[in-house]
Amino acid sequence: MFMIFGIPGPLLFGQLLLGLINGAFYAMLSLGLAVIFGMLNIINFAHGALFMMGAFVAWMLLNYLNIGYFPALILAPLIVGIFGLILEKTIISRLYKLDHLYGLLLTFGLALVIEGLFRNAYGSSGMPYRIPDMLQGATNLGFMYMPNYRGWVVIAALVVCLSTWAIIEKTPLGATLRAATENAPMVQAFGVDVPRLITLTYGGGIALAAFAGVLAAPIYSVNPNMGSNFINTVFAVVVIGGMGSIMGSIITGFALGVIEGLTKVFYPQASATVVFVVMVIVLLTRPRGLFGRTA
Q: Deepest of 13, 103, 110, 273, by most Cβ within 10 A of its Cβ?
């Protein structure tokens, strides 16, 4: 068995893979948060609950309708995204002219309600979600065996994250979105339905969380607490990357996942706090975050 820095190679690479997987979920969840905050100026604390809802919708599609994993990757984000559209139209839209604190408190309450409803219906114990047949097994990379499904999660997360960044930063639709956040009346004067654009943006951010939930379902047990296990770290990722920064969320999410994985190898006692230590250091040296825009 080969060693690296006195650590068995398979152990080190295994933790790196786990770090990349956690980083993939951090990136996708923080990406949705960054989209919603950057475009709508709302701190969406319900994001973790909607991530959990995506996993539950995939589980229900499989167990009640016999709809498998790959169709669920499309249907679950669509269903949860529509739920997000309804939330935005009925509740969230009332907060746009108020202080950020009101949005934080309201979405925190929504998270508690959503988690409570699922807890009452399904209990707190986790329910398994089977890995699809074509993604089972592992691939020998020479220095380690990589589970196929976990490799798929990293690739899928990268594709979705980079596609979202490209849409927002490189397309006319993204330019319209950014313009609407800067000067909504002027954009509306050009015939753009800004309220509808805002609603669709919120629904898209929620759909990203639900997509991550479907990816997470075979790895973590499907349970009402799975979102709350991620959300604190995800908020730290958003702060470190820069509130509203799309690329900042992607890079920081993956990087912090890897840092967390390596910390579990070299100093396991600090693995639960290393992300927050990084957050404190970044806030002290660069309050706007690593990729935050200057005023």
A: 103
